[in-house]
Amino acid sequence: MPKFDVLTIGNAIVDIIARTDDATLKALNVQKGAMTLVDAERALQLYANMGPAIETSGGSAANTVAGLVALGGKGAFIGKVSGDTLGEIFIHDIRSLGVFFATSQLIGDPPTARCMIFVTPDGERSMSTYLGACVELRPEDIEPELVAGAQVSYFEGYLWDPPLAKEAIVKSADIAHAHGREMAMTLSDAFCVNRYRNEFLGLMQSGTVDIVFANEAEALALYETEDFSQALLRLQQDVAKLAVVTRGAQGCVVVEKAGQTAYAAEPVARVVDTTGAGDLFAAGFLRGYTSGRDHATSAALGASAAAHIIQQIGPRPATLLTELPAVKALL
Predict the structure, then answer these.
(1) Bridge partners of 213?
(2) Beta carbons of 85 and 123 less than 8 angstroms apart
(3) 314: which of 42, 55, 116, 276 is 20 to 30 A away, CA to CA?
(4) What's the structural domain count of the chain?
């Protein structure tokens, strides 16, 4: 039996979350609803213009494994932080959740990554990310035994920006497949897809990636179309094993070579902050998938985890998700 249900590999980031309005976004030249990479100078300028903020460990793949553990799964994480204050915060936070994390810290510059997240009244989040130490993730940071011991290794598309990280991901996929394990990825962001469309398609078509998570905008961007049905048909042809496309309040569609099946979302009374919605959906789906549940149950777990997270500020569960009535019924 694998030691871990899921190993996630991604950018180790400390999130700085503040409420704002559309006028402030415009004044700061922050693109609403997108994740934009920024340099150190821009990061300092944005931080200086944020209102009261909450600082919490984040990063897409780290949020997913945090959600998986909150759902009762066994998870591990690989990501690079520096030996600074934010790095220590990240390490403390992720280990305190019960996630296995042992990636060596970077000595010296660049500092630990941080993401300035502006949340508007409609719950939409606009992110400006300084990658810092994340770009120093290298193939030697991939522990073969860790990958071999995980049922699924999952990485974020955001990680495709640093060149050495690409090598680390390919190494992980080779190890996973050599041990009969599976590789999964999230497309992360439509802008990320636009940068690496051909490479992402190559990962799917070659079988380097077995499972793909995307939202509707990312799926449309992947195939450069405005026709969602057409994007799903193309995805059905390209996916190695399984793709899951989320559609917010419209639920999700599970895509396999044999066909497509839509599943409903879990209704929420009020959206507070959409940060982490996709990350927690992936956590719920993978929790079901790695424990042998069918796609309907896995999708329902993903929907419950996502519904919970968008009703709070921040991308990580404040309580054990196994205590939620809907989750208890599914597990």
Answers:
(1) 186, 244
(2) no
(3) 42
(4) 1
